[in-house]
Amino acid sequence: MRNTDPCHHHPSICCLLEPKDPREEEKWAAELIQECAKAIADKDSSKIRHLLWVLNELATPYGDCDQKLASYFLQALLGRAAEAGELCYTTLISAAEKQQSFVTARKVMLKFQEVSPWTTFGHVASNGAIMEAMEGESKLHIVDISNTYCTQWPTLLEALASRGSDTPHLRLTVVAMLSMGRSVMDEIGRRMVKFARLMGVPFEFHVVSIVSTLGQLTEEELGLRKDEAVAVNCVGALRRVRVEERDAFMRTLCALRPRVVTVVEEEADFTTSRGDSVACFQQCVRFYSIFLGMLEESFSPTSNEKFLLEKECSRSILGVLACNGGGVCERREKASQWCERLTEAFAPTAFNDDVIGDLEALLERYREGWSLVPAKGNAAGLYLTWKAEPVVWASAWKPIKP
Amino acid sequence: MAGEAVSKASRPPNPCPDPSLPPVVKKKRNLPGTPDPEAEVIALSPRTLLATNRFPCEICGKGFQRDQNLQLHRRGHNLPWKLKQRSGKEPRKRVYVCPEESCIHHNPARALGDLTGIKKHFCRKHGEKKWKCDKCSKRYAVQSDWKAHSKTCGTREYRCDCGVLFSRRDSFITHRAFCDALAEETARVSAAYTMTNTASIGSVDSLLQDGVATPNIWKHLSPNLKPNIMDREVGQQDRHGCSSWMGHGGRLDNAFDGTTAMSEINHAGLVDSQLSWIHCNKLSSLPTSNTLKPLMGSVPSLFTSLPHRPAPDVSATALLQKAAQVGAISTTPFSGSFGPSECQNTSAGDGSVFDGLLIHEFAASNTDEVYITRTRSMLRDCLGGATRDFLGVGVQTLCQPSANGWI
């Protein structure tokens, strides 16, 4: 996929054409973007304009990873410059939602899961923790706040069905996130119901759409019942809670009195550097270049699913760099930061050996480059690493008894 | 009986002392964890459970894991008939509890019925997983489990009704749950759950559209560079009446009168004329660029659209040098920069697509519905693609006459 035409080489930094190591040249987008960040911090308008111009010349969403990065960041920067980030973002989201159908959503998710453990890692870990926490329970209620369109649940349903003598009753309440369209969720619901019937698991499915922000979710909206054991599953969810609402959100979760809360997040810090463009850009560039590189290596070059995931990536970058508050939030935090928030109300619970075994078996089935690393220090849980970089974090939590 | 056992000769309490426990009476007696109330509860120590020679032969002292093995061995000693009989063995049934306190089988009400069972349980759940499958890294504490797994690991194939073959069980299951084959199977049966989602039927087109329509500024930046795609986009707009950032029906029409967001921003006067290059061609674009393949195929990067031997003045380096010149020439300051500026008051509220709090009750089953517990083999059959509708035709209200159903 990389263009190896010797007649062209990627420039590194405009006006600073020092001779560079050819390998270094491949990272030109990161450097350009960083320079831009510095220029913004310095309020150097001519330099900003200059760099944007260069980025524009070199960027394309149809090129290699650097060109894509340049393209997405340029879009985000322009949105930011025009203070139209929120508007662009919500437009993109609703446009994507309108174009989305159950068939395309399914295709993208399942293909992604086939070529990369990026999402399945979190699913296997969470399901394992849920199964363990719910052992012996006969009425389960899972509150699902995730961005993976319920692809986590078929394997859990199967596990429940083959658990042994008593198959419990499962109620699944899905909190639909911004990009998950009504018709898609309804169709998913229908499929889940059918599948549960096939598995012989008594099942109920509800979708809750949040109107304001995730951080303002209330217990009433979820419709909990008295005699059920609750599990809250947050996959790619916490980062969508506005930063100032995060601590309160932890308390809301605790108030649901769950047996277990499973948290899966992407390992990046876009929160502490909110005010500082240079650091924020650096974190963004680092994370998204890893992500794009992973997509590149996992999918075939002309994959449409990859393209749609990249589009989502570009929206995400816009969300991080050009949206500040309002309804849009994609500010990721690292494991240690989430742990600090979670330990206010919860205590971490370790994944049992079965789950670890399942995770290792899972990673075996994908290409080289993935591995499982336990979190250390003041973070609990497990990391999925891609080329030795931690990218996804999975953990399980139990409420601290009052 | 082995000397190390710590025996608690007590009755297990009534299996239903606590309403939160599953009502045992409705289940068959010999299901795991539902012991006979008359049985004797034995609590063995972990050491005993993991020991491999609990049953010693009184003749030669050889130790055996199971009583049956010991008996077989004793026969070999050619004992006179009288001594062959077990002395003083109680005919009373024994059940075993797990020594692990946090385990559910620690509770005598959930004790397991046979010694081998409790040993296996303890080993599997609380023991060290010494046996590892070399194909998939799955670990096992009980050697027989590991052996059984190794035999089938990687050999098993799962075929969905739609024809696709899987080597991985989890991807098979996930696929199956969302597969149209599954949907069709029960479509005829259940009128309430019709599948015809008209949006999804047109999805092949939307797929194409997804691939082509780009939400960003590129189509305005280099119209000459991607003529084919532009044409297609225009064509598709006519056909579908929408494109990513073009006006859709509904409230977005007001906000984006058929233009992209970037143009809107420009019209709002937010973008200084200094950024007007956004709407011009890229320096590197060429007037005729017919080397582009359709988007669904491989789209060459920006630079391969140049002729094979680009003249020096369109190389990237030269480009940058040009850029340096361009940048140096213009003198007017960049207004409307990244600092605060007066924003046109676009009603950002329009971006919210949710009208209000919606709770969609998609309760599939009313509480009258009764499900029959499946055994593992039936499960396998179903997953194996057998199309039998186990619950029979008419899935809406299943009221099985049998009382042995689901509560």
UniProtKB/TrEMBL annotation, chain A:
One Pfam family named in its UniProt record: GRAS
> What name does the UniProt record give this protein?
SHORT-ROOT protein
Keyword annotations: Transcription, Transcription regulation
Where is the segment annotated VHIID?
Answer: 109-174
Q: Does the keyword Transmembrane apply?
A: no
**What PROSITE patterns does the database record attribute to this sequence?**
GRAS (PS50985)
Q: Where is this region: SAW?
A: 322-398
Q: Where is this motif: VHIID?
A: 140-144
Q: Which residues form the signal peptide?
A: none
Give the protein family.
Answer: Belongs to the GRAS family.
UniProtKB/TrEMBL annotation, chain B:
Tell me which Pfam families the record gives: C2CH-3rd_BIRD-IDD (PF22995), C2CH-4th_BIRD-IDD (PF22992), C2H2-2nd_BIRD-IDD (PF22996), zf-C2H2 (PF00096)
Q: Which InterPro entries match?
A: C2CH-3rd_BIRD-IDD, C2CH-4th_BIRD-IDD, C2H2-2nd_BIRD-IDD, IDD1-16, Znf_C2H2_sf, Znf_C2H2_type
Domain C2H2-type, first and last residues per copy: 55-77
The ranges of region (Disordered) come to 1-38
Q: Which key words are in the record? A: Metal-binding, Repeat, Transcription, Transcription regulation, Zinc, Zinc-finger
Biased composition annotated in UniProt, kind: Pro residues: 12-22
Molecular function GO labels: DNA-binding transcription factor activity; zinc ion binding
**Function statement:** Transcription activator that acts as a flowering master switch in both long and short days, independently of the circadian clock. Promotes flowering upstream of HD1 by up-regulating FTL1, FTL4, FTL5, FTL6, EHD1, HD3A and RFT1. Seems to repress FTL11 expression. May recognize the consensus motif 5'-TTTGTCGTAAT-3' in target gene promoters.
This protein is called Protein EARLY HEADING DATE 2
Q: What organism is listed for this UniProt entry?
A: Musa troglodytarum
